[in-house]
Specification:
- By secondary structure, the chain is α+β, with helices and mostly antiparallel strands.
- It has nine helices and four strands.
- Strand 1, helix 1 and strand 2 form a beta-alpha-beta unit.
- The protein folds into two domains: about 70 residues, 3-Layer(aba) Sandwich (Glutaredoxin), CATH 3.40.30; about 150 residues, Glutathione S-transferase Yfyf (Class Pi), Chain A, domain 2, CATH 1.20.1050.
- Helix 3 runs antiparallel to helix 6 and helix 7 packs across helix 9.
Amino acid sequence: MEPMITLCQFTTAPVWGVNPSPFCMKVENYLRLAGLPFQTQVTLPFKAPKGKLPFIIDEDGRRIPDSGHIVAHLEATRGGRLDGALTVEQRALGHLIRRTCEESLCFIGMYSRWFDEPGWSILKPAFFGHLPRPARWFVPTLVRRTLRRDVLGQGTLRHGRDEIYALGCADLDALANSLGDRPFYLTDRPTSVDACVHAFVANILKPPIDTPLKAHAERLTPLVAFIARMDGLLG
């Protein structure tokens, strides 16, 4: 049996049927698809090597941060289980798809949960309702303030609500059109790109947060079918 990998992340229990961090869920997806044994461990970002989650602790004790670096490390040390046979062109397309999810759609999703009031009213009790008083009162404000700084600096919060959701819907259209009627994005079997897209799109479709982004995703048949297909593989 292969040595156990420890995945350090925000939670070990799903919220709304998903890992609420798409980046952590991406690594979970990769590990499951690659058939690599792992365990999860709850931790806080300040304990991570780069101050962000997720990170893994590999069999030799090395701590590997950043979801992209984690996947690259595991591909390099575990024989290229998902991406080893990809061509240069497939890798280039995969890079573009990942960046769409991680550098654009990610921030629209953050806006829909943390700053659009319908989403915040659902997220706040789900994420912080278990905290004891008075932490339940001030921790959400502190976290939201930090995220506001990040999303404002990235640029998303400089737009109006309709403009933000239009950007997100354009990302979803690009993801749906890139997939078309194929089962997976790059080959006839899932790769790390599919692990990534599933994490970000499932985090839009599955939470009980009704937004223009979710409504648009539900109308995109290729994406809805893709999520169901990946759910079946991931168990």
